[in-house]
C-alpha cells in the first residue's frame, strides 16, 4: 500500500511532502515521545503523532517513515512543512483522533 | 585501522529546527558508503540522541564522526554545563529537561540509555561547568 492510497481512503489533507506520496507503507506507529519513537519505530511505518515541530521530520527521515499523520486537525508549524517538503516526507492531517486513525488503517490492512 | 574519513558538525543550543541535521547528514554519508541498513539505524539512533542532548541540555557543542573500514567512532562534545551525577543521568526515566522540551516530546529520560543500547562501546565523561563528552563506537559487522 502506498501513502496516496491512505490519503484517498481516509480523506487526509496533504499539508506537505507531496513528492513522497508514492512511498510504501508497512505498519503504523503512534507515539509522541521522540526517544521512544527513535528506538521502536520501523522503516516505512506511517507515524501518527500530535507533535508538530520541525524535529518530527528529522525523526521521520532518520527512521525512513513513509509519512507523518497529524490527528484531530492540529495545525502544523510552517517550518515543519518546509522541512517535510525538503525531505519529501508527506505530512497528512486528519479530523480523526489517533485511535480512530489506527482503526481505519487496520481496516485497510496496513 | 586506517581512518577513511572524518566529519564534524556544530550543534547549536536550543535549535530544535536544525536539531537532527548532523545525524541526517551522517546517515546519508553512511548510506553512500554502503553500510548495512540495520547498522545505520543504530548509528542514527545513537547520533540523534547525542545531538538532541546537546540541543536540549547544553550551551552548544559538536558531533564528530570518524569512519574506519570496520567501525564508526562518534564523539558528541558540549561546552557545559556538565552532568553532576552521571550514574543518575544514565538511569532510564531520569531527566532534567525543561517543560518546553518535554512538551515537544523530549525529556523522557531515554536519551543516554538509548545511546548506550545502540552502541557497541559507550563512554561518557563530564565536568560540571566545563564539558560533557560522549564517545560511541559501533562496528559494521
From TrEMBL, chain A:
State the organism of origin: Caloramator proteoclasticus DSM 10124
Q: Where is the DRTGG domain?
A: 5-107
Under Pfam families, the record lists: DRTGG
Instruction: State the InterPro entries in the record.
Output: DRTGG, Ser_kin/Pase_Hpr-like_N_sf
Q: What is this protein called?
A: DRTGG domain-containing protein
TrEMBL record, chain B:
Q: Which Gene3D superfamilies match?
A: Histidine kinase-like ATPase, C-terminal domain (3.30.565.10)
Question: Care to name a GO molecular-function term for this sequence?
Answer: kinase activity
Residue ranges of every copy of the Histidine kinase/HSP90-like ATPase domain listed in the record: 23-130
Domain of life assignment: Bacteria
List keywords of the entry alphabetically: Kinase, Transferase
Q: Does the keyword Kinase apply?
A: yes
One short Pfam family name for this protein?
HATPase_c_2
For whether the record's keyword set contains Transferase, the answer is yes
**Full protein name:** Anti-sigma regulatory factor (Ser/Thr protein kinase)
Instruction: Please give the organism.
Output: Caloramator proteoclasticus DSM 10124
Amino acid at each position: 500500500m502506498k501513502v496516496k492510497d491512505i490519503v484517498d481512503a481516509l480523506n487526509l489533507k496533504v499539508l506537505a511532502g507531496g513528492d513522497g506520496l508514492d512511498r510504501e507503507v508497512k505498519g503504523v506507529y503512534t507515539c509522541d515521545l521522540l526517544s521512544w519513537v527513535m528506538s521502536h519505530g520501523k522503516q516505512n511505518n506511517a507515524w501518527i503523532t500530535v507533535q508538530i515541530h520541525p524535529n518530527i521530520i528529522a525523526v521521520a527521515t532518520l527512521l525512513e517513515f513513509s509519512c507523518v499523520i497529524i490527528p484531530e486537525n492540529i495545525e502544523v508549524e510552517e517550518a515543519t512543512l518546509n522541512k517535510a517538503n525538503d525531505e519529501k516526507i508527506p505530512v497528512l492531517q486528519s479530523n480523526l483522533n489517533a485511535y480512530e486513525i489506527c482503526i481505519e488503517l487496520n481496516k485497510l490492512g496496513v | 585501522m586506517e581512518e577513511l574519513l572524518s566529519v564534524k558538525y556544530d550543534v547549536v543550543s536550543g535549535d530544535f529546527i536544525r536539531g537532527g541535521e548532523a545525524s541526517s547528514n551522517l546517515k546519508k554519508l553512511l548510506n553512500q558508503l554502503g553500510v548495512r541498513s540495520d547498522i545505520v539505524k543504530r548509528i542514527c539512533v545513537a547520533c540523534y540522541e547525542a545531538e538532541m542532548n546537546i540541543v536540549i541540555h547544553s550551551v552548544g557543542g559538536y558531533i564528530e564522526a570518524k569512519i574506519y573500514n570496520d567501525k564508526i567512532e562518534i564523539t558528541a562534545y558540549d561546552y557545559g554545563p556538565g552532568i553532576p551525577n552521571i550514574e543518575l543521568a544514565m538511569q532510564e526515566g531520569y531527566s532534567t529537561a525543561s517543560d518546553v522540551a518535554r512538551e515537544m516530546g523530549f525529556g523522557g529520560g531515554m536519551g543516554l540509555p538509548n545511546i548506550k543500547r545502540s552502541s557497541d562501546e559507550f563512554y561518557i565523561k563530564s565536568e560540571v561547568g566545563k564539558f560533557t563528552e560522549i564517545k560511541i563506537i559501533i562496528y559494521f559487522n
